[in-house]
Amino acid sequence: MTVTGTVTDATGEPLIGASVLVKGTMSGTATDIDGNYRIQADSNGTLTFSYVGYNIQDVAIEGRTTLNVVMKENTVMLNEVVAIGYGVVKKSDATGSVAVIKPDEISAGIATSTQDLLVGASPGVVVTTKGGDPTGNADIRIRGGNSLTASNNPLIVIDGVPMTNQSNAGGTNVMTMVNPQDIESLTVLKDASATAIYGSRASNGVIIITTKKGQAGKPKVSFAANFHVNTARKTLDMMNASELRSHVVDMYGESVAAERMGDYNTDWQDEIMRTSFSHDYALSVSGTANWLPYRVSVSYTDNQGILKNSGLQRTTTGITLTPKFFDGLLQITTNLMGTYAKSREAEKGAVGTAISYNPSRPVRYAYPTTGNTGMTMFNGYWNVTEANGNINPLCSQNPVQMLNERRNIGETYQGNGNIQFDYALHFLPDLHLNLNLGFQVSKNQSWNDTAPNSIMSWNDQNLFNTSLTNSNNETITAAGAGARTKWYELQRNTLLEFYANYRKDFDEIKSSLDVMAGYSWQRFDYQGNSRYFVNSAGFQTNGAPYVPYDPATGTYTLNQFDESLAGTLISGNPERRWAEKLMLISFYGRLNYTFDDTYLLTFTLRDDGSSRFSKDTRWGLFPSLALGWKFVNMDFMEDVREIMNEGKLRLGWGITGQQDLQTSYLPYLPVYISSYETGFQYLSHQHSTSDNPVWIDPLYPRPYDSGIKWEETTTWNVGVDLGFLNNRINLSADWYLRETKDLLCEGFFAGAATSNFLLRNVGNMRNTGVEINLTARPVVTRDFTWTTSFNAAYNHNKVTKLDGDKNDMSNGNTPSGISTPLRYFIVGQPINTFMVYEQVYDNHGDPLPGQYVDQNNDGQINDADKIMYHTADPDWTFNWNNTFNYKNWDFGIALRASLGNYNYNGPRFSNTRLSNVMTNNVQINNLMRGEYLFPADTDLNNLVLSNYWIENASFIRCDNISVGYTFNNLLKDKLNLRLFGVVQNPFVITKYKGLDPEVFGGIDNDVYPRPITVTLGLTATF
Predict the structure, then answer these.
(1) pLDDT score for 639
(2) Could you give the count of Cα atoms lying within 13 Å of 602 in the half-sphere of its Cβ?
(3) What's the CA gap between 197 and 607, in Å, rounded?
(4) Are the C-beta atoms of 513 and 502 separated by less than 8 Å?
């Protein structure tokens, strides 16, 4: 039979696009613009009505042909709360700039670390991953950077515990230690009115991570499995052996080509990369055991990189308990998380070496070798040698050997968690007392092993200098021996926080009050050591670090000493030990006031004390004020409320601080350290003899500034939030201005007692920006729904003041060995502005070698002719995500764009110069195909600073394309199963000529390539 009707809300307004489904079938429809529907159903069937923001209703047909339904508002959804630090607030009442990210099954499945979930998720949040590095580390910037050389990383808070951002072993960090499947939500606090409650650590924004908790009811089992195939998206177009040989012949003649070119045609980029396979699994059980809600989870990740011998294995476990006592007045939340991660980092220098390495040479070569070892010279890898067989330490090393015979293993054991007591007083339940005890402990160790007889060991002069005289009066050296760097660090973070929170609605005066005041004590400390020591027997040499060689037969002689030197510290590298601690003490408070559900006020104040600063500058006061106006509730908006359901204006101001210097915990004190380097030691006259001089390692103070103080950022924010058609369309927009003063920076400072570089307060900086976020469901029908979200962000920063009369400071050099200052902090310009010469071109668009614009017309090219030329940071970033649902199928695509960012193309500079074809008189280097090649006589000192190498790195990247199918109610409603496939990074549109345009800092050199990844995954819920 045919059933018709109208679906409305409690006020009688029709609901457009409400879903009407015949229960137990796939048959359904959606209401039209007047809320009307028509559907075929059995006379004794049931219709299910659903709409965003309203409770689902099942209505029995009972033979009726007309069914009109009034939907009831879902108070839970309408009163959705967001974490704001030391509490929550209704999303509709938030006065600050706050973004909430809730991962779905696909995004959590393709993410190898938590920070992957932030990519493209919110305007103004830029996440630059370390290429395809499997450790998953990334640089995160919220509304651009506020500091020069101090930390620009946001504060990470996990379940109420602020985390340390120190790096762990193997390049991992705290966000790579969290399993994405355990994340309930990520809340990004952007402006000062939202972040100021965290005071001294909030200048760069705050990311609050909330993990999943147990729910009431019977046990729920969730399982997820994902399988990934990773392959290189792009390699640079280099010449083959035949093409390169013609250049060698033209420049140096047939004899050199015959001597220095081989008969092979090796693609070195292909040799260092691979197609890798990765997989991850996650299992969780949640529910309630008698009176105890719980959630237990375990996960395993094996992420293999596309550079050979790079990968990460991670195991995580977690348990959450959330019992309530005294009729719910006392709630205890316990979160415990443990992680074990083992990584192998690839030698990234192999990327640049492979690009330029001689393609006419083989990967492996059986050098004729005699001696007592049975080894082949260089362990059978081909390497550049001189005509007499000697090793030239200035020559490049075989990139495949660099990956295979340098083994950098990192291990991290990390535990973090907290127990939080929230007690609503029996006699005053509106007053909550909250005690939070938290911890984070990380044990880190790494081993960096270099194989004996490898080219890397033979090139280590310090191994040759490590020696002893045995009982036979023979000198034993460690030349060519295996070496190991062993590093260990224990990091601890301990937290105690207590706050009181009073929340009360005063209906008689149409007011709501939320007042909080608290105290925080937090201690960070770390201690560690490192040793660089001999790890095998060394080899006999001919008095220099060269192996005996017979030119007549081309034979090396490898005779190995005994292992007397094994375990000995390598010359010039004494054992290092360190230990430091940081204390933070804070008093804080917040007032939220709402009048008539229309006018909102938030005031916060935090007073922080840090042991990083002296008693004269130790304390910093950080206030903020925000106002909100829900103008949609005004009488003059009554006529448009049927279309506009949300309209709010936000104004915010606040001051936040910065004290994370990334280097020393005591920058205001003369911390003394020992100097062991040659040239800095003193001769001991008391114990020295002419044949046996004794050197003393002096103690000297590190540079310090007794007056160093807080870096402070003042932020103004104006925002508007709009919702239409019961939040079917949502729009938010923000404008902000951030002024940072007393910038913390480690820079050149002539005249310091023991160094020319000093950490101090040097100047001011300004950030301005605009953010726009739009989400919508443009199409909603019976079987098909299209959901789209688009965000855009503009950011412009500039340095407004530097110390004294300074106008600029260098901050980053050119790569490729020349190391000339390239990036600068310049007053009136964006940070990291490139300073270069303006290249002159001919009529065909090719550069004229050695010709640059004489900016001041003085007839010479020098520093006065450099121009300020672009910056590494983008002006605009865009993200566009789309999901299309058809019945049980879904299809998604995510696009991301960056405009206005520029890169210095280091590989292009290195491999388009004919002067680089042969270096050190023995090494042949490859050239790029299809590029202009600079003549050999071009002056490199100016060429390296030509703006020819700075390229527009704007891009449009497809982050992922996904398709999935959901099987509902399998095994008699006991199993929901979802299968999906994803392609990540399938294409990039850019003019940039390097491997990848997304390079943090804008200097492209030895960047780990981003792969194309194909994923097959499943999630199951029992």
Answers:
(1) 86
(2) 27
(3) 10
(4) yes
